[in-house]
Every structure is written in C-alpha cells, then in structure tokens.
Amino acid sequence: MKKMQFLENIWYCAAYTAEVADKPLARMICGMPMVLYRAESDEVAALEDRCPHRQAPLSMGNVIGETIQCDYHGFLFDKTGACTHIPRQDRIPAANRVDAFAAVERWGFIWVWWGDQSKVDGTTIPDLSWTADENRRVQYFHWHVNANFQLMADNLLDVSHVDFLHKHSIASKIDPTAKQAEAPKVTMETKVKGDAVHSLRLVHNTMLAGITAAWHGSEGPVTRVSTGKWLPPNSCILKLQFEDENGDINETINLDHIMTPETENTCHYFMDWTWDFGGPDGYPDHDDVDREQRSLIECDDIPMVEAQQRNLELFDNVQDIPVKQDKFVNRVHKVLQRLYAEQGITERVEVTRMAAE
Amino acid sequence: MKKMQFLENIWYCAAYTAEVADKPLARMICGMPMVLYRAESDEVAALEDRCPHRQAPLSMGNVIGETIQCDYHGFLFDKTGACTHIPRQDRIPAANRVDAFAAVERWGFIWVWWGDQSKVDGTTIPDLSWTADENRRVQYFHWHVNANFQLMADNLLDVSHVDFLHKHSIASKIDPTAKQAEAPKVTMETKVKGDAVHSLRLVHNTMLAGITAAWHGSEGPVTRVSTGKWLPPNSCILKLQFEDENGDINETINLDHIMTPETENTCHYFMDWTWDFGGPDGYPDHDDVDREQRSLIECDDIPMVEAQQRNLELFDNVQDIPVKQDKFVNRVHKVLQRLYAEQGITERVEVTRMAAE
Amino acid sequence: MKKMQFLENIWYCAAYTAEVADKPLARMICGMPMVLYRAESDEVAALEDRCPHRQAPLSMGNVIGETIQCDYHGFLFDKTGACTHIPRQDRIPAANRVDAFAAVERWGFIWVWWGDQSKVDGTTIPDLSWTADENRRVQYFHWHVNANFQLMADNLLDVSHVDFLHKHSIASKIDPTAKQAEAPKVTMETKVKGDAVHSLRLVHNTMLAGITAAWHGSEGPVTRVSTGKWLPPNSCILKLQFEDENGDINETINLDHIMTPETENTCHYFMDWTWDFGGPDGYPDHDDVDREQRSLIECDDIPMVEAQQRNLELFDNVQDIPVKQDKFVNRVHKVLQRLYAEQGITERVEVTRMAAE
User: Fold this and answer.
1) Chains with at least 3 CB pairs less than 8 angstroms from chain C
2) Whether C142 and C215 share a structural domain
3) Which chain C residues have a beta carbon less than 8 Å from that of A48?
4) Is the pLDDT of residue C183 over 90?
C-alpha cells in the first residue's frame, strides 16, 4: 500500500451513527482498512479490517457479544483487537491481534483517533451541539467521492460557487455576466484563531430563488449571511441565515460538512443538515431535506470536484490562479501548511494547486 | 500526464459538425483535454478544457455569446482562451487564460491544429470535396476505439481483410482455403507522392455477396476497384467501385476514414460515407448506411483492432510478419518513419510491430 | 507483460472437456494467452493466441479441419503452430508460426504442458480415475477467481473453514464459541510422500446439518472423514465420507479442486464433483450438485479468497499466524518452497504470508 501521510493525533469522522448498527461496517480511513462494529453494550469499536490468521476481512463476519467473529475460520476479537477465541485450539498466541483505534460516538457521528493511541484526547472533537438541540431537526449524509478530500473541502470554503454551480437550486437571482458594480454587494471577513479559520460572508439585498426561496417562504430582498468555521483535519462548520430588510432572521441552518480521506485521491464526505424552521405544511421535512441535498451535492458538487481531480491528474504542470473570493480557502491552506510542517510531513499529498495566502 | 509525441503542425480531425452544436464538447486530442464550442457567430473554438482558476473543465459550462462560461464560479473565456469576466471582481490577471488551438470547419468535420499556432496553414486540410457534391449523399460517423490510432488506420490500408473479417457482410464470395491460382486474380499498385501514399487494388471477376450485392443490385461477376490515398497524420481516403463485365461503373462510394489519437492507446475514428447511387426504393438511404456501417465497424473491425492492441501489450517481444498484401501499409509506415524523424520525435509510440517497407 | 515465474515441466489444467467444442477457447495460462481448439479429428491443440502476421488473436477465428483460421486475414495454422495457408500468396515464410503447447485430454479435463516441450511426460497427469467409474456421476466446474492460485488452493487444504464460512450449508452443527473440550473431537494426520502431501482429518461424533444432512439422508451423529492429497502445481484431490456409528460408509464424494494460475493475481478454479450415492427420488442429481456447489463456492469461498487477496495488497507488511488446523497447508507450502528452489525460481510470486512448516 502506498504510504500516504495524513495529519495525526486528531479525530477523523468515520461514519454517522446509523451506519453502524447490526452488521460490521468496512471503511477505509487515511488509507487504513478499518472495521467498525457496535458491540452488544452499544459501544463502537474500530479495528484493522483483517484477521491476523489469514488476513480475511473481519468486516465479513458477525458481532458476538462484545467481540467480532471472523467468518473464515471463526476466530473472535475484542474491542482492543485481541483474539479471544480460536476454534479447536485453547492456546492463543499473544501475537494473534490487530491494531485498534479509539472510537467515540458524538453529535451523531463516529470519530476515530488517527495517530498515537496513547494521546487520545476526547476534548478535541468538534462542537456540533446544535445537532442535539431538541428544537431542531437533523438529517445525516454520507457520500463517497473520487477526489482528494481537500478539493471537496475547498468547495465548501468558497460559497461564491453557489450562484453558478447551483444556479437551478440554491442560488440567488443573478445576472451571470454582471460587472461588480451591478451585482449585489458582497462583504467578506476571515480570521485565523489558533488552528481554526473563521469566515463571515454577506450578500446584501439579494433576491432568493429556487429552493432557498421555498425555505424562506416570502418574497423581497434579503441579506444572505454565511458564517463559516474550519477546523483541522477538514471540518467545514457552516451556518446559513437570511436576514430580512427589517433585520429579522427566521431561518438558521447549520450545515456541517466533514471530509475524511479514504485514500490519496478518494474521500468520505459526511454532513449533517440541522434546521430550526418549517412551514405550516411541514416543509421542509426530513424527506425534503434528504432529496434536496442529495440532488444538489450528487448532481452539482461531486461531479464538479471529481472532474477537477481528473483535470489535476491530466494537467500536471498548472497552478491555480486565486481570486478575491478565495480568501477563506487560502487562509485554510496556510494553516494546513503550518500543521503539516509541525508534524514533519514532507510527503504531503499536494491536493490542490491553490497557493496558501 | 505521460508525454506522448504526435506529429505536429498538422490538422487533426476533432469532431464532425453535428457533434458541436448547443453544448460544449469535451474531447481529448493527442493527449490534450480540449473543449470545442460553437459560438453565437457559428465559429467553432478549441481551448484547453480547464478553467485556470481551479482547473474545472470548461466543457461542463455553457456558451454565452462568443464566450464559454465555467460552471463552477462563472468565469468567461473567449475563443483565444483569454478570461473576459470574473464575477465580483473587475480586475482580470493576464495569467488568467488557457491555450487555444486553431479550429476550422470543413467538409463536415472540425479540424484542430496541433503544434505551433503561429504556423497554422489552412491549405493543408485534406480535400474531401465530394462530401459537398449536391448529387451525393453523406453520412458521418464517430467511434471511440481502445487501440492506438495506427492499428486502426492499418485496418483500412489493407482491404484484403474484407473477405475474412467481413465474410458475412461486404466480402466477395470466396473459398477461404483457395490457393492463389484458384482465387480471383488480384492486382495491386502503390505509389508514394511526397507525404501521400496512393494505392490501387483490383479484384478481378469476383462475385459480390451480402451487402455489396445489395448495393450493386444485379448478379454476375464484377471487378472490385479499391482506390486509396493516405495522408498524414492518418487519413485513409478510400473509394470503392464495382466495374461490370462491359466496363461500366454504376456505383462510386467515397469512404474517408480519419484517425485521431486520443491517447497513446486510444483513438477517435471519424468517417464519412458518401454515395452517388440508390435503387428506386431509395435503398440505401441514410438509415441503411448508418445501420450497415455501424454493424460492420462496431462488430467486426473495432473488436478485432482492440484485440490486436491487447495482444501487443501481452506479447511484448514479437514482430509482425508482413505479406504481399501489406504493401500499402508498409509504404505508409515508411513515410511515417520519415516524418517522425524529420520532427525529431524519438519517443515515438511504437504503435505496430509491422516493419516499414 | 510482467514476467512471472511458475513451476515448469508440469501439467496445468486448462479447461474441462465440454469447454472446448465447436468454437476455439481463449484462455490465459501462467500469463500466456493460449487458444485451445478441438480439431475435426477430436484432438485438442493449444497454441499461442496470436497470428504472427498482425497479432490478431486466433481464438476469434474458426476451426477448419485440423487447422484454425485467423479471422482477420484468413491465415491457417495447424496443431504444431505452423502456418499452412496464406490467402493470395503461395509462399509461406518459415517464421510464420507460433508456439504450441502439448495438450492432453484426460479425466474430463484438458491438460497443458508448461515448460520444455521436449520433456513432455504424459504419465505425470494426476490420477482422477474415479471420474471414469461408470457407477458414479460427475459434474464439472470452472470458475475465474481474482486471487492468486495459492490462496484459492489453501482454502481447500484447510477444511476447518467449513464450519464457519459454510455455516448455512455444509457445516456440521456447532457452537461457534465452544472451547476445544466441548466441541466434537478432531484428529488430523498429514504425511509428505515425494512431491505429494497427504492428509486425513476426522471429526468424530458430529451432527450433520444443511446440505450434508440432506445427502446423508438420516439423523444421528457421524464421523466426517476428509481425505486429502495435494499434488503440484496445485491439485487438491479430496474425498469426503460420513461414517455411521456402526462403521458403515454409504456416501463417498470425490472433490477434485485444481487451481491453475491465469496471472499473478488471478486464477482458474476447476473442479469435478464425483458421487456414488443418491436417494430414491434421485437426489442429488446433476442439477442439484451444480446448484449446491455453485452456491457454496460462488457465495462463500470465492468472495472470501478475493477479499484476502485485496487485503494482502492493502496490508503489505503483515505475516499470517498459523494455527494447529493449518498443518496440511504448511506442509504443502514447504514442498512448494523446495520445488521452486529446485527450479531456481527466485522471483517466485509470494502468494501467501503463511510460513512453511
């Protein structure tokens, strides 16, 4: 297996809760094939997805109590990766074990610690506490993307794409060739605080269209308020609000987009979409949100990002040319550059040709 | 991207006219991902298929006037590859551009100049003027082939394959094991004129079968007259006629087979089939020709050539053993050898194991 | 083509008889693309699958008498690989030939000699004479497996997997977590005789379940008697019997599993299933055996072995950890180690991480 280098001693999102139920789940994280299983006690374990006997994937087996059984020859392993039973043999060699990864279930996601397992720090899981707010509804998603996880994250860090890539769904009403002076005014601020990067982007006096108009439920111009917070390795914690002319905000959507590398050129895209509003007809309900977000992300974003990935492989000697709207992206890349350097990762996968700020 | 070397300062066929209409067309030519689009003025442009901002393929976008718009963030580019509009930003960096390739529409095809764009020479597009003859009908084709473009061209340069590979469609009636003395007499002449290679092949006193018999419409032996002209990079300009016993020719078919490399091991196969005959029942009409030619080329030729390609990869140490019927092929290979040498192309992809004459 | 090294001067199974009938069969053996064809005389020939003229696969052609005709330009080749006819040309260059491989049809299989063709030795084909016993019925199988042939063979050399991988079909009734003292007693003996490895494994006083119970047709505990004989390159000649409490054996099944490498990481899996029993209702008939064995091997064994192959590629620095039940496997690996060494094969493909005994 090609050795890739990913940021270590940090939590990567590995699944959302409902993905790990009765059956073990095979999932590759940072190039490591893992099996996630939910034991009888409801605790979730993450192990290397192999039986040390003959390298059969444990994920093809079944959960028995607190252990997982290899389907090939019936060996059992506990949550620490130790073999606890070999059929027709009482002695179990100490070497008969696999690596375990700390796994924590929080905010509807399962987080796995990548790096030194003696340094596990549960306090560094991102705060997504709105997902637990009983006055809100939450819908969870998982996509597999054939692109590097940074390309997918960059998509969320530059919401200026919304007016073009999503012109038939969540864009504002715009003239695609309007000069700056003729378009709604946009203001954007970004700030780095430690390893986090914050962004506030306002589109003033704009007319909602498509799905956003349906969410808002009334006509007239609004200010689109996009608040962003990025956390390493690649969580894009976004909030979208529509401010009326009189300053009222009636809708708050938390959209947490969490990217986890599967391999160098593929990733897992997790999302929760958490909302606090709804019309008298119940719209948008869970099914509406599921349909709308799948449509957007599966038809617009993922095909575009996968096409970027292919082009980066085809055009191997070109550099991106950043523009003003890329400020948030650039600051994130600069933090990443520092973090990789701090970990001595020189073989960092160059996931993007975008210069750091 | 692996650097391949193709003949330069020459026109490659990139599409037939109808392929470039309302929507941009993504097409890789000589290993270069290009976007072809038809502007409002009806002129066709060919650009690198990437936006310099984030490397999104321009072919996923739309035509606006004379420009093409990137679908990701809305940048516009004109036919020279220059960026003419960046949303929410008035200043456009000069570096914000991509390469453009000269594109000319002629004889129902779109031709793209590969090499030094200051040396574009519109006079060197092959003459296919019969496609514009109002007394003839034309049907255009495009196939994608998983084989080197020379292997596909060689297929057309050796029509002796017709009696075997196409034994159920356009072959003459033959005995597959007949000794030379027992088979219809074949005469063949070839001649090199500059970069062109000409061929004249006659099969005397032969009985038509299958589709060719249906075209000809009457029984009795004929002389099959196959005239061939090859032009670099790989245009096989063929003519097929059936001469009656009394010397009359009632059918002339121009079949222009034009091969364009996509990559080292894949190619585009373009064809026009131009005919001047037809029975009182209208046969063969456009649908007949489309069905017949697709059947022939998709079921017989392309599978065979793709199988050759696979075998060239599997048997990497064998040489072809040419026979008398390969004279046209060999002379073409000899011209190609000279042309590549003249361009100093030493890393020429060895597309065939057939020795030059 | 990557040069792999396989044991030489030995017979590899290439097909079962019914696979080579009217049409030539393309089959890659030890990395060599071969064509197998049955001549008019009923003899089977094995040639390189290419025409020396332009490298078209001969397997796309047809049999004419004792020869095979290339479908591209009509050349004929005999069973020795020599060209016997070139259309429109009487002279045949001596170089116009391909390699032939000795091919013998025996026990319902076609065996091909890999290595020095001057050392062909028909006496070393494995004895599967029960397939010719008129009191038995035989069903033949061929599968293509995306795994190294040794991994697939190891599956048959360790029947302890039956109770887990086949728990829903041919397992005994077991408690998957039973300690050794609580489970049916198992005895196992193995012995090396020259290049052969023999194994006898008894599971005492066990209750049959699923399909095995249906075969046996009566309740009550039995002794499962598994006799195994392994022969290089990778034939697993197995026999399964159920011994009643009174010592009677009413069913004998010969299961010959013969593995032939296609490439380094893919193989052909041939099997005959030969049985001497059957209920008054005819069960199991050929259709029953075909359905049952396909179900077992296609749903359980092959997916597991292909998953092992993927894991060996993903986890490239792990060693298997053998257990007591692997004794037969280990002794086979030790013989293989000696045989490869005797042939000076140092670039042996490491097909498994299992240490030799």
Assistant:
1) A, B
2) yes
3) 315
4) no
